[in-house]
Amino acid sequence: MSASADRESAGEAHGSASEPVLSVRDLRKRYGDAWVVDGVSLDIRHGECFALLGPNGAGKTTTLRLCLGLVEPDGGTIRLAGHPVPAAARRARANVGVVPQFDNLDPDFTVAENLLVYGRYFGMSRAQIESRIPALLDFAGLANRADARIQTLSGGMKRRLTLARSLVNEPDIVFMDEPTTGLDPQARHVIWDRLRQLVARGTTLVLTTHFMEEAERLCNRIMVMDRGRIIAHGAPRELIAREVERHVVEVHGDGLDEWAERRAPALASRVERSGDTVFLYTPDPAGALSALEAESGLRYMHRAANLEDVFLKLTGRELRD
Amino acid sequence: MTSMTALPRISMRFVPVWRRNQLVWRKLAIPSILGNLADPMIYMLGLGYGLGSLLPDVRGVPYIVFLAAGTICFSTMNSATFETLYSSFSRMHVQRTWDAIMNAPVTLDDVVLAELVWAATKAFLSGIAILLVAWALGLTHSPMALWILPLLPLIGLTFGALGLGITAVSPSYDFFMYYFTLFITPMAMLSGVFYPIEQLPAALRALALALPLTHAIELVRPLFLGKVPDMIALHLAVLAAYAVVGFCVAVVLFRRRLLK
To answer: Does residue A315 belong to any structural domain of this protein?
Structure first.
């Protein structure tokens, strides 16, 4: 049974091309007394790039595992690629790719063998998989490393191979759990470039991240999750416009404490403090900037508000463990 | 997957997982076979000829012949045990290979079945290797010994299933030492590998009859000596019961560990 045949049968199963690839209603999961997923609903349509944001422990990874049918929910319904989950999770996963948070490439195999062995888990024949391997290696930038052992690859190469592996079955939707965590900036930009290529080809992507830049650059839609609940939802620009003031002035340096207490509140519509930095949020920064110009000990930086400001406003600045 | 405690739901999707393990093994097949063979051969030849030279016939045959039949079972058991403890634990916990597989359309139940069948496959090869050596040394002549061949995979399944149950609850490699010290090694002493269980005091003999290795040996040794075993159905049933119950328990324990 080929992946494309599976996809056709999935299409027939729901009989409509407009059904969301992933549809979740009032999903709940409890560990002991704690609800780690507490009433999550979402719809993801074909061709979307969707990001689930949240601090550590917000319930992002558990939500993904629930969607894949790897964890039994305590409430709610899930439909993935036309199949109910967890009841028909195995059939749903035939049309899904997954890039896990931690690399789990097979260390006993070469690059090409990793793709071959993984394709067989989808019921693909050797010939089918081997016909796809050159394109997958090209995509991963590993065309000349087909016979290399996994241990000889850099972190970025391993990530790219994991991404290529998730595409071996030509999935309708790819789940990625923190796809660039632990990568250096160069490797991260290469992954982003590949993800943009996938979106351009029409692959549906769902990713969790706590890199706001990643979500802002790649995704057309974002959900912010905290303590198991969805606390904000929208396009990146839209969320920024709705949730925070347009301008941010970050202030640090000598005499910050006194200045923050005496002067700052009058200069901005909202003042936040995180460690040794004060954040002034304001629709019009002119007053704050000229006041800061006169302060000798303080250093400051003016920038446009971004998704990180939304995130910190919604989820708070205290450390999460 | 309807509930944590449901019976295993298995499918032919286990085959690609079995093939994955087989492909890894093929890369290291020769050292692996020699490594598996060396240890039991040293015991069999050292004790069999060395200690055997001091002993009268045991049950009417030279001690080396008596010991060879026990060694076939012991080696088959050890091969399945090592595979499902150390190797399965590496794949599950250290390499996260199972996590990767379960993101494909393969369930945990299929993965555990693949591990069990793979362990039985390796155990089969270990048993055959000892049987071949015994035959080459002239320790067995009877065509009846060929009936040992279909028993070896069953013995592999029995001890593979028990080993998987231990792996499912193991926090680290160190934990496996308890299983060897508290179960495998005492069982080897009580089950008739090295001497007939009739030599044991009555209480220990009753205990021996509850142990799966005893039943494996009660089947293999007569066949090795060219005789028809007594109570074949009973011995087969005990081995199969350990395998089936062990597998079902292991699957439930793995679900509790991994599917939460």
So the answer is: no
The torsion of the CA quartet B94, A37, A173, A6, rounded to 10 degrees, works out to 90
Q: Which domain holds residue B134?
A: 14-258
Closest to B82 measured CA to CA, from B29, B43, B123, B111: B123
CA dist., res. B241 & res. B247, Å (int): 10
CB–CB contact A106 B100 (8 Å): yes
B27 in reach of chain A (CB within 8 A): yes
Residues A167 and A190 in one domain: yes
**Chain A interface residues (partner B, CB cutoff 8 A):** 31, 68-72, 86, 89-91, 93-94, 96, 98, 100, 102, 104-109, 113, 117-118, 120-123, 169
Cα separation, B39 vs B30, in Å, equals 15
Which residue of chain B is at minimal alpha-carbon distance from A175? B103
Do A198 and A288 fall into the same domain? no
Confidence of residue A318 (pLDDT cuts 50, 70, 90): low
Residues of A in contact with B90 (CB under 8 A): none
Among candidates A70, A94, A104 on the partner chain, residue whose Cβ is nearest the Cβ of B105: A94
pLDDT of residue A321: 58
**Tens digit of pLDDT for each residue in B27-67?**
988 888 888 888 899 999 999 999 999 999 998 999 999 99
Looking at the domain assignment, is residue B1 inside a domain? Answer: no
* pLDDT of B7: 94
- For the stretch A237-291, pLDDT in tens is 999 999 999 999 999 988 888 888 888 888 899 998 888 899 999 999 999 998 8
Q: Is residue B7 part of a domain?
A: no
* Contact residues on chain B for A123, CB-CB shorter than 8 A: 13, 16, 105
Residues of A in contact with B13 (CB under 8 A): 90, 121, 123
Domain assignment of residue B128, yes or no: yes
Where residue A169 falls among pLDDT bands split at 50, 70, 90? Answer: very high
Domains of chain B: total: 1
Same domain, A291 and A220: no
The parent domain of residue A260 ranges over 245-304
Query: Do the Cβ atoms of A120 and B20 come within 8 Å?
Result: yes
Is the same domain home to A228 and A299?
A: no
Q: What is the predicted pLDDT for the residue at A2?
A: 40
As a whole number of angstroms, the distance between CA A69 and CA A40 comes to: 15
Read off φ and ψ for residue B146, nearest 5 degrees. -65, -25
User: pLDDT > 70: what percent of chain B?
Assistant: 99
Judging contacts by C-beta atoms under 8 Å, the chain B residues touching residue A31 are 260
Contact criterion met (CB < 8 Å) for A122 and B23? no
Closest CA to A289 of A271, A264, A310: A264
**Three-state SS for A205?**
strand
Please state, in angstroms and as integers, the Cα–Cα distance from residue B96 to each residue in A140, A314, B57, B258, following that order.
22, 34, 51, 11
What's the rounded Cα separation, in Å, for the pair A2 and B105?
Answer: 12
Judged by CB atoms closer than 8 Å, whether chains meet at B100 and A108 is answered as no
Q: What is the pLDDT of residues B148-161, one digit of tens each?
A: 999 999 999 999 99
Measure CB to CB from residue A121 to each of B23, B104, B259 and give the nearest one.
B104
Peptide bond into B16 cis (omega under 30): no
